[in-house]
Design goal:
The structure holds two protein chains of two kinds. Chain A is of the alpha+beta class. Chain A contains two helices and four strands; from the N terminus they run βαββαβ. In chain A, strands 2-3-1-4 form a four-stranded antiparallel β-sheet, with helices on one face. Chain B has a domain of 133 residues: Aldehyde Oxidoreductase, domain 4 (2-Layer Sandwich). Chain B contains 20 helices and 32 strands. Classes of the chains: A alpha+beta, B alpha+beta.
């Protein structure tokens, strides 16, 4: 049985590591995952990819946190794809 | 190239012609068109598919339930002659995870293993044996980790986090009335446990993926929901949905176990990589690792009642082991919470339902979907409460039976009909099976049968009752719908109706039902139900006992549309006729007079396509309140058992049942559904459990995982109530799940009656019956030897 309480918003974040950074690539990814983990919204979606899913505001807030953590750890870039879920109340900005 | 240009106009494999039948009308016994071919071995299951030039796909699976992957070396496999492709996570072209509700399961593991049997790599080869040998040459370097194999342990703060957001997948809380201030004269508490049951469908996971030569792929597969498979497969292949076309192939049973993906993405990846058709068929052992199972649960209950036997409150704490990935666990968690109190008038309730991630095999949909687990617990509680009160257990249930107009603990009003009292009264007054003298009886009618373990000494009879209920259709705000197309044409001078949906026939008799509805609505003798595929809109899943209701309604409405088009044509050609127009035996009739045969009227096809959406439902709020469900189906069971009290062996003598079905659409198929559901309930009561030790399955075979056979099945006495649901097509109610829900606790109640043992865990083992242990030993035996204790490369198995 599918999608009971679908998230309003999901953000897929792929960390592009930098071999030249002080911290090794694996640690750059781990830093992003750790930041995502603290949000309570995260799941892994690939070796360098994390998805955040939940209410609009909380996802956007957590997305910023993950990007900052990745960049602070030396990542070269973070690819971000933000999607409003099809059958979620996408314009409800309260949650 | 645009998307439309990439989609071929013809399927890559020839479409089988749909058999034409003359079904009975709604309510008539109708023999299933697939019945005889299945019995004769002529039915083409998905495992029978083949194409010229096809390759065989195979999956490398982790032998460890919890591990870190340090490296994967495929060079050895690639060097084997006859191997065409070896793929890992790096080759997944699109989304690397999938999942029906929560995409959290890797298509192929990249870094972490979360359950034994998790897919790591794929091979396509010219022969299944070549593929198997190639799997052995893939070198995976694992760091084996301690498995988190207990749901309660997974809740602890210091438990290792199996997923980024922790181990609690879902928590549903229901607050109804005021439990704290409720005053009870009698309080009964208990803790109950249910083992992991397998769907045990006989046809293993299988399918054939065929590249279309334009970047897309056709997949012929046995599944429960073509479109949700299509979406997930397309996403992981990085293709548009119309580049991935699915056709339903012969399904050898499902029971929820085919709602999630198994080999779908893997076969398509291999087909697109090699440019050749690729077939994948799991063997029985792999099948146990290839699909989800019923959630094991630990449930703590407390019932308070007045001294007259009126329930005052219920408290329940439910803990479900969801295994490694989410599957449909979110919905199971909700369902269990909403049905935790049983079909009773409970004025105050506090329910906590938790779903946990562990390193056990993933669990998900299975017939009964959360209602099975809680029914065992609440019905055991009702028996214990009756004992405490000195009341008859059926009388206690009748006294507290829910009725239309009251509120469920989750706040929704109980809609009519809700015949809990009536079905209990029916099973109570049904004649009991004759009590045959045990001494000197034919051994085949004694517990243990021809094993010759008793000749009647120590055999006692017991009787038990239970009642249960469950929702029909998808719930909690999901937009649940089905699409149907009906085409009326003339073939060989006779009108022909074709019914086309994407609804999966999984053995329950849906295609026969669709034909019956078409014939009933349009009065045409010749009906063909076309193969289900994704060229038409979604029909939703064949689950939640919903297809007769939702797809049935879509077919009915499409027929009504065709009928109206026919009548418009009649009015255009013949003017207004006195009397109401109708369709009978292939003719348009008015006032008892034939106006025109359909075969003469129709010069070109008349086609109608309908998307039927059922009434909207709502998610639960933070207190677990809301109009969450569409329809409710009820069944009661009485079990009569005979027990060899010295050896703990059981013979179920008879199951009696009363079930409200709204409308018996095809009585023959209905009886089959009820008997089959009872067999599955009996299996859970006495036989069926996937035994797991430290995250590893110990009995992945039908030698060691026991399912009931015809010798275990008792005779079934049934009464069918047809109390119409005013909102449903023909007043019907879903029928597939209720027989499984309360048959289990009825059998266990009968065992208690015979033995006096507590029996708080199912399946009930002989050692519980004879009173050696309430639970099986914590380290279960390892039937089948070491060969089944791991899956993956043969040399690794030998090491474990």
């Amino acid at each position: 049985m599918p999608g009971y309480e679908r998230a309003q918003l999901s953000a897929e974040l792929e960390v592009i590591t930098s071999p030249a950074a002080e911290r090794p690539p694996q640690e750059q990814v781990e830093a992003a995952k750790e930041a995502a983990s603290g949000s309570g919204l995260a799941r892994e979606a690939g070796p360098e990819t994390t998805v955040l899913a939940g209410g609009r505001k909380e996802v956007l807030r957590a997305t910023m946190g993950v990007i900052e953590a990745a960049l602070d750890a030396g990542a070269h870039a973070v690819n971000v794809k933000v999607e409003a879920e099809g059958d979620a109340p996408r314009f409800d900005t309260e949650s | 190239m645009t998307r439309a240009q990439t989609a071929p106009t013809a399927p890559t494999r020839e479409r089988p012609r749909a058999p034409v039948s003359t079904p009975g009308k709604v309510g008539e016994h109708t023999t299933r068109s697939d019945g005889v071919p299945k019995v004769k071995g002529e039915f083409e299951y998905s495992s029978d598919l083949r194409m010229d030039g096809m390759l065989w796909g195979a999956t490398l699976r982790s032998p460890h339930p919890h591990a870190r992957i340090w490296s994967i070396d495929t060079s050895g496999a690639e060097a084997i002659p006859g191997v065409f492709a070896v793929l890992t996570h790096e080759d997944v072209p699109g989304r690397k995870v999938y999942g029906m509700e929560v995409p959290d399961q890797p298509v192929l593991a990249w870094e972490r293993i979360r359950y034994q049997g998790e897919a790591v790599a794929l091979v396509a080869a010219d022969h299944p044996e070549t593929a198997r040998r190639a799997l052995e040459k893939i070198a995976v370097e694992y760091e084996v980790l301690e498995p988190l194999a207990d749901a309660e342990a997974a809740m602890r703060e210091d438990a290792p986090k199996l997923h980024l957001s922790g181990n609690i997948l879902r928590h549903v809380r229901i607050r109804h009335g005021y439990v704290e201030s409720a005053r009870a004269d009698v309080v009964v508490g208990g803790e109950y446990e249910i083992g992991m049951q397998d769907q045990a469908f006989l046809g293993p996971e299988s399918g054939l993926a065929v590249p279309d030569g334009r970047g897309g792929v056709d997949l012929y597969v046995s599944t429960q929901w073509l479109h949700v498979d299509q979406d997930q497969v397309a996403e992981s292949l990085g293709l548009a949905p119309d580049q991935v076309r699915l056709t339903l192939s012969g399904v050898g049973g499902a029971f929820g176990g085919r709602e999630d993906l198994s080999m779908q993405i893997h076969a398509c990846m291999l087909a697109l990589e090699t440019g050749r058709p690729v077939k994948m068929v799991y063997n029985r052992e792999e099948s146990f690792f290839g699909h989800v199972h019923r959630h094991p649960a630990r449930m703590r209950y407390e019932h308070g009642a007045t001294k007259d036997g009126e329930i005052v409150y219920v408290r329940a704490r439910l803990v479900f082991d969801g295994g490694a990935y989410a599957s449909s666990s979110n919905a199971v968690c909700l369902n269990a919470a909403t049905f935790a109190c049983g079909p009773y008038d409970v004025p105050n309730a506090e329910i906590e339902s938790y779903m946990l991630y562990t390193n056990n095999p993933p669990c998900g949909a299975m017939r009964g979907f959360g209602a099975v687990q809680v029914c065992f617990a609440h019905e055991t509680q009702m028996d214990r409460l009756a004992k405490e009160l000195g009341m008859d257990p059926v009388e206690l249930r009748i006294k507290n039976a829910m009725r239309p107009g009251i509120k469920f603990p989750f706040g929704q009003e109980v809609p009519p009909p809700a015949p809990v009292k009536e079905i209990l009264e029916r099973v109570r007054v049904m004649p009991m099976p004759e009590e045959e003298e045990v001494i000197g009886r034919d051994l085949r009618r004694l517990p243990g049968g021809v094993s010759n373990v008793t000749h009647g000494e120590g055999v006692r009879r017991g009787v038990g009752y239970a009642v249960g209920y469950k929702n029909v259709g998808f719930s909690a705000g999901f937009d649940d719908y089905s699409t149907a197309r009906v085409i009326l044409s003339v073939e060989d001078g006779e009108p022909l109706l074709e019914v086309y949906t994407a609804a999966a026939e999984v053995g329950q008799g849906l295609i026969t039902l669709e034909a019956q509805i078409a014939r009933t609505e349009l009065g045409v003798e010749k009906v063909a139900v076309l193969p289900a595929d994704t060229r038409i809109g979604s029909a939703g899943s064949t689950s939640a006992s919903r297809q007769s209701y939702v797809t049935g309604a879509a077919v009915k409405q499409a027929c009504e549309g065709v009928r109206e088009r026919v009548f418009e044509r009649v009015r255009e050609e013949f003017g207004e006729e006195p009397g109401e127009l109708s369709l009978e035996a292939g003719n348009v009739v008015a006032g008892g007079r034939t106006i025109v045969p359909l075969a003469e009227l129709i010069d070109e096809e008349i086609e109608e396509t309908v998307e039927f959406h059922h009434r909207a439902t709502e998610p639960l709020d933070e207190n677990g309140q809301g109009n969450a469900h569409l329809q409710f189906a009820f069944a009661a069971h009485r079990a009569v058992v005979e027990v060899d009290t010295e050896l703990g062996l059981v013979r179920v003598v008879e199951i009696a049942t009363a079930q409200d079905v709204g409308k018996a659409m095809n009585p023959q198929a209905l009886e089959g559904q009820i008997e089959g559901g009872i067999a599955q309930g009996l299996g859970l009561a006495l036989l069926e459990e996937i035994q797991i030790k430290e995250g590893k399955i110990q009995n992945a075979s039908f030698t060691d995982y026991l399912i009931p056979t015809i010798l275990d099945m008792p005779s079934v006495r049934m009464e069918i109530l047809e109390l119409a649901d005013p909102e449903a097509p023909y007043g019907l109610k879903g029928v597939g799940e209720p027989p499984t829900i309360s048959s289990t606790p009825a059998i266990v109640a009968a065992l208690r009656d015979a033995t006096g043992q507590e029996l708080r865990r199912v399946p009930v083992k002989p050692e519980q019956i004879v009173g050696i242990a309430e639970k099986p030993p914590s380290g279960p035996p390892q039937p089948g030897g070491r060969g089944y204790s791991g899956i993956g490369r043969l040399d690794e198995r030998r090491e474990t």
